[in-house]
Amino acid sequence: MSEYYKINTYGCQMNVHESEKIAGVLEELGFEECPEGEAPAVIVFNTCCVRDTAERRALGNIGVTKAEKKRNPSVIIAVVGCMPQQEGVAEAIKEKYPYVDIVLGTRNIDKLKDEIQKVRASYARKRKNDKRYRVFDRSMPEDYLAIDEASPMTRTSYPNAWINIIYGCNNFCTYCIVPYVRGRELSRDPSSVLDEVKRCLDEGYKEITLLGQNVNSYGNDIAGGEVNFAKLLHEIDKLDGKFRVRFMTSHPKDLTYEVMDEMAASSKICSNLHLPIQAGSDKVLSDMNRRYTRERYLGLIAALRERMPKIGITTDIMVGFPTETEDDFEQTLDMVKQVRFSNAFTFIYSPRRGTPAAAMPQIPYSVKQKRIERLINLQNSITKELSLGYVGSTYEVLCEDLAKEGMACGRTDDGRLVNFAGGAEDVGKFLNVKIDSSKSASLFGHKEEI
Ligand code: 5AD
Ligand code: SF4
Fold it and tell me: From ligand 2's centre to the CA of 172, what distance in Å?
């Protein structure tokens, strides 16, 4: 009889991809993805701790598994990823959630296989007063890259293949927990990355998304100074076949003209860039330790648009950083108006334990709430206006998935989501779609005969 696994993923694309590695490990053990209505034998929570909301959501859902464990005492519950990697959190989970069996940090996914087997064995031989086997491991193995290269993977995002190129972050923005939980930057060997890209293309993937907390520092930790992100893009671009390349995330202090030139010269690298601005005032940017100014940011935007006039630029913006005054916030709004992002992910600053900004005097929540509402309203009106500009024209769209009621969806080269009448046969195909209408960030159209 089949045994099933269920993975609950929180947070960024990096976590979505890491869940593909977790699925790979579980499938090697013989588990299958849990169909609707069946009971899983293994439940994994792949967690995020970037903001309080993500953490609370995960903890709430972990709490719900108490009932699951009552129904089926041998169900294995694992909590992995960023949350338990924080100082003291694995221990807190151990105390407060006694039914959790396995807790592993960000660089321990490979251990899931052994640990699941140990937990199963302990359940099988458990007699009344025996202590249950539980594991809490948040070590950071030195040879992580080698371990990662050998890890199995079950991709779940066809026609897109996520490919990690660099792990960790060295930047220590003062609000951010990531460098503490994901460790220092570790770049994968370029030949391993290229091999993985080739394998994915051979398997029929049509879009490659390169992942890293800061893809622009790719290669900085590889001796010899020969490897950098622009050169990696160049090598990928030379590969045969029709496919798209995207990447995230880029840090404005590290984005180079060399990368922009590669993007502009390439027919495969999409005219699309995610470039988090975070804030619009130089004072706040400095307090955040972002190491760029609004002038530098605007200079990058101008240089990108000079090379790629139709580039779609998205961003992350935070409001309510401890030192943000009303005037600083107005400067964020001003940058949003000047740049005209195609879309923005907006966040209320959330203090993270152990980061410098968490120790500063905080802004009342009601102020942050008002600021984010103003920011969202402004960005929505810009997105809406930009969307109207697509109506009436035809775009090449890579169909990515099915949507509701006979609809399919995909993206334009510049990253816009397009919905159109379509079916399973369209997924993974490049189609010409004429845009008929738009609604905020979404475009609606119909396939044109080629
Ligand atoms: N509070 C709110 N947002 C945060 N981000 C990172 N740390 C925090 C925090 N403490 C946002 C940043 C980043 C995105 C992934 O999450 O905008 O770019
Ligand atoms: Fe966090 Fe800054 Fe690193 Fe991004 S660059 S992961 S915001 S520390």
Answer: 6
Could you say which architecture CATH assigns to the domain 273-386? 2-Layer Sandwich (3.30)
* Per-residue pLDDT reduced to its tens digit, 16-54: 999 999 999 999 999 999 999 999 999 999 999 999 999
Q: Which atom of ligand 2 is nearest to the CA of 179?
A: 8
Ligand nearest to the CA of 291: 2
Distance 154 CA to ligand 1 centre (A): 28
Look at the domain 157-270 and name its fold.
Transcription Regulator spoIIAA (3.30.750)
Distance from residue 130's CA to the centre of ligand 1 (Å):
44
Ligand 1, CB within 6 Å, residue ranges: 50-51, 175-176, 276, 278, 316, 318, 347, 349-350, 352
Rounded Cα gap, residues 32 and 42, in angstroms:
10
Cross-strand bridge partners of residue 278: 317
**Tens of pLDDT, residues 424-439:** 999 999 999 999 999 9
The domain segmentation of the chain, as residue ranges, is: 4-124, 157-270, 273-386, 394-448
Q: Count CA within 13 A, CB hemisphere, residue 18.
A: 27
Question: Is any atom of ligand 2 closer than 6 Å to the C-beta of 356?
Answer: no
What pLDDT sits at residue 382? Answer: 98
Please give the model's pTM, rounded to 2 decimal places.
0.96
Q: Which atom of ligand 2 is nearest to the CA of 214?
A: 5
Could you check whether the bond before residue 249 is cis, i.e. omega within 30 degrees of 0?
yes
Tell me if 221 sits within 8 A of 145, measured CB to CB.
no
Question: pLDDT tens digits for 148-186?
Answer: 999 999 999 999 999 999 999 999 999 999 999 999 999
How many other C-beta atoms are found inside a 10 Å radius of the C-beta of residue 279?
Answer: 27
> Which candidate, 387, 422, 390, places its Cα nearest to that of 403?
422
What are the tokens at 173? Answer: 């923005």
Long-range contacts of 116-125 (CB under 8 A, 24+ apart): 116/26, 116/29, 116/42, 116/76, 116/78, 117/29, 119/76, 120/74, 120/76, 123/73, 123/74
What CATH superfamily is the domain 4-124? Methylthiotransferase, N-terminal domain (3.40.50.12160)
